[in-house]
Amino acid sequence: MLQAVENDKSNSIDVEESILGGNHSFIGAEVAKNWGFPEVLILPIQYHHEPEKCPSKNNKIQLSVKAVYLSDLLVNILYSEKPDEYHNKFRKSAKKLLDLNSNDIESILEQMHSRVQEAGAYFNLKIKSSKSIQEILQEANIRLSLLNLDYDQINKQLVQAKIHLEQMTIELEKKNKILNNLANIDGLTGIYNHRFFQNALDQEISRAIRHESCVSLLLIDIDHFKLFNDTYGHQVGDFVLVEFAKILRENIRKYDILARYGGEEFAVILPKTTMKDAWAVGEKLRIAIETSEFAGESEKYHVTASFGQTYSDPAADDDFSKNTFINQADEALYEAKEKGRNCVISYTPKKKWYSF
Asked: Are 340 and 200 within one domain?
């Protein structure tokens, strides 16, 4: 079938119909039915090339069908030999099917290539980096214009195009960095935010299940921070939060994940780390904070912090859930505060609190 499509430049669905008597949409939907999948999954498989033919009146199913159809067009912009054709089709279809405006469509097109990489990372897949859609379309336009140029003109055009593409690549990298920062980085401390923490914890849990390894979590709360803010003011409080985050970042491993959980609370995900080792990391951080001077413009400040730690082997725990995992660290943190603060407490299933 692939050979026929390549040789005759035919539509893949037409070739499938002629050789198999059915196309991949129909066959995929029949397989899904046989497996007992619900309609909300079967219909998007069956009608993802022809969303207008979907018979369902269910709004959620209709949206899923349209989303998969538009996703297919986006992928073809990145990886087909006719990116401009699919680009035009996507713009028209996105407006028609989802009533998206020009700004919405541009935003999707600008982020598409990086979102593919994020999706691959989420499923632990190594997807080859793609150029941005703007670069792909620019190169397609160049190839088209080269057809009517002589050799000298071609060389001149190629040099100019290369310079332009390099400039555009630099600009896009800057924009992508800004977009990633806005989405994943806490604006005050410069570390990851709560949104990134939740996604990262999902990924580490999935990795631990696949590799049958363990994962630990630290929740950290600056002691009496409200009183500190009331005494010294919020500007000093913000300064302390920034310096506090720096100390944590400097005292963990490169592959540990530090995030601002909210307010004066921080979280550290510790992959492949046992309960005892995670407690040792917490104690190291606790001492680093306790012994640090937060030197402001006119005064020096000292703070301490309480630590709640939990540990799990998700693959071996039939009752494991992410929310329960976070709650366990939170309960241990609460116990650390009850025990007088400035300490590290580890959670165990029977709530026998450990400080080693």
From this structure: yes
Residue 121 lies in a domain: no
C-beta separation of 201 from 247 below 8 A: no
What is d(CA 239, CA 304) in angstroms, rounded to the nearest whole number?
15
Query: Quick check: 321 and 333 in contact, CB under 8 A?
Result: no
0.85 surpassed by pTM: no
Complete DSSP assignment for 111-180: HHHHHHHHHHHHTT--PPP---HHHHHHHHHHHHHHTT--HHHHHHHHHHHHHHHHHHHHHHHHHHHHHH
pLDDT of the residue at 137: 79
- Unique residue bearing structure tokens 């989420």: 122
Residue 199 carries which DSSP code? H
- On whether residue 178 sits in a domain, the answer given is yes
For the chain, helix (H) and strand (E) counts, in that order, are 14, 7
Residue 150, token pair as written in the block: 């002589």
Token reading at 110 = 């600008």
Its domain, for residue 72, covers: 2-100
199 and 333 in a common domain: yes
- Considering 243, 264, 265, 335, which one is annotated as catalytic? 264
Residue 329 sits in a domain of what CATH number? 3.30.70.270
Q: Are residues 40 and 83 in the same domain?
A: yes
Q: How far does Cα 214 stand from its chain's mean position? A: 22
DSSP string, 2-65: HHHHHHH---HHHHHHHHHSS-HHHHHHHHHHHTT--HHHHHHHHTSS-GGG-----HHHHHHH
Kindly state whether residues 175 and 198 are assigned to the same domain. Answer: no
Domain endpoint, select from 184, 209, 232: 184
Residue 220 CA to residue 268 CA, distance in Å, equals 8
Mean local confidence (pLDDT), 320-332: 95
pLDDT band at 178 (very low <50, low <70, confident <90, very high): low
Nearest to 285 by CA among 297, 262, 267, 298: 267
156 and 282 share one domain: no
Catalytic: 264? yes
Claim to verify: residue 175 and residue 282 sit in the same structural domain: no
d(CA 70, CA 76): 10
